[in-house]
């Protein structure tokens, strides 16, 4: 390795700065339970473009808006592949999905299907009734709980809501109709997520790592997690094969019609495994991320009664007492949308986005980056960078007043959905649910902390994993406002 570095210097190459490495493991020991936080600390010492060595694999971590713009806009094509990690391969039916597939013709065609057919603005609007029905059912159930003034576990309720909405959009039926139990399904999704966030030796130690993964039982865990979700998809797809044309068209119907009508998708094959792989994307990428965002928003509001009151006053000024907010009201709710932006700034559900892999050599801030380097963009750190954000740790939605900064991938200081070719294609679907749910939670209830608890007692710790869950469940008491 030393010879290689000497050779690079001789050839006048500049590699990004980074911490000293240990033999074999490189810098793996520097990555703690909350990688976005440990990488943030390291970036303070080594800068916004930092090199790490993860076992046998080189990595670059980007931690400023300017550097993120370079990789996600200027060099987007150089860095828009995904690394072939063991967990990603397993969950994606060997890279037949969109999220984890390497860049190429197959990925491009499948992404086109998602953007144009499955998650387009038009499609999202066509599922408006699903969101309205599921949110109404949540509000009704919270109204019953409010009679006894007992604290409810909002983290769990938000997961159940986003899962029900995605179930009905994808499968045409909700949890209960599918015969699944909310808690069990939540465990399945969390197992799949922790699989994605887990350290597989085969990813970082070529040739020998797979032996370690077999011995530690990791391979078997991956298999189990994949099987339990695959069983659900298999069953639902089979049921859809016998549906009548009168049934409301859902995402599985759409994908089955794409399977049947291959000619519309050129040379690229779209088969049953592609359908199930995209379902995996929808469930792994689409359920928890929305629930996480809603839980953090409610936690921040519970901690900040001034902001809670202001957001409630706004929502209630547009809606008759006792009524629900509907989607056509949302565009008027400017403060509510600022609250959501502020939540996404401080608590992006995927703090390091999804890992990317470089495909060619390019210069980044004057440093040379080589092909097959893992690239992580620390959007969590960028959201707290004092160079862009005044008092960054403070939850202060007013910072977005008279500001054009938005989260759709054009402003690199706020990137909760990523940007560029690999940016989140589910953004319309996600925001439709988050906005309508939050508006109704604020419209229909006042929220109290459980007895004896003060705002300062609310802990805001994050659990470890690929996504930033709130570590302890958020428990609040709903008081009905009607
Ligand atoms: C608040 C909710 C959500 C957040 C914060 C979120 C965030 C993200 C992020 C950060 C990425 C990676 C972007 C990158 O690597 O640059 C991503 C990718 C993706 N998301 Fe979302 N997402 C959300 C909801 C959804 C929903 C509801 C769906 C679909 C139903 C979805 C589908 C996807 C897919 C398929 C990808 C992979 C794109 C690709 O690699 O080409 N997401 N999302």
Outline:
The protein has 482 residues and is of the alpha+beta class. The chain is 50% helix and 7% strand.
Question: How is this fold's topology laid out?
Answer:
Blueprint: H1 2-10, H2 35-46, E1 49-54, E2 57-62, H3 65-74, H4 86-91, H5 105-118, H6 121-126, H7 128-148, E3 152-153, H8 154-171, H9 175-178, H10 182-197, H11 201-204, H12 209-215, H13 218-240, H14 251-260, H15 272-286, H16 288-303, H17 305-318, H18 334-346, E4 356-357, E5 362-364, E6 367-369, E7 374-377, H19 379-382, H20 427-444, E8 445-448, E9 475-480
Parallel strand pairs: 2-7
Antiparallel strand pairs: 1-2, 3-9, 4-7, 5-6, 8-9
Helix pairs in contact: 7-8, 7-20, 8-15, 8-16, 10-13, 16-18, 16-20, 17-18, 17-20
Bound molecules: protoporphyrin IX containing FE.
Whole-number mean pLDDT: 91
Number of DSSP helices? 20
Ligand roster: protoporphyrin IX containing FE
Number of domains in the coordinates?
1
Assigned CATH class = Mainly Alpha
CATH homology group: Cytochrome P450
SS content category? alpha+beta
The succession of helices and strands, N to C, reads HHEEHHHHHEHHHHHHHHHHHEEEEHHEE
User: How do the strands of the widest beta sheet line up side by side?
Assistant: 1-2-7-4
Shape call = globular
The count of strands amounts to 9
Radius of gyration from CA coordinates: 23 Å
Euclidean distance between termini CA atoms: 69 Å
Task: Classify the fold: give the CATH topology.
Answer: Cytochrome p450
Main pleated sheet: 4 strands, mixed
Helix content: 40-55%
Oligomer: single chain
List segments where confidence is low: pLDDT < 50 over at least 5 consecutive residues: none
Range of strand content: 5-15%
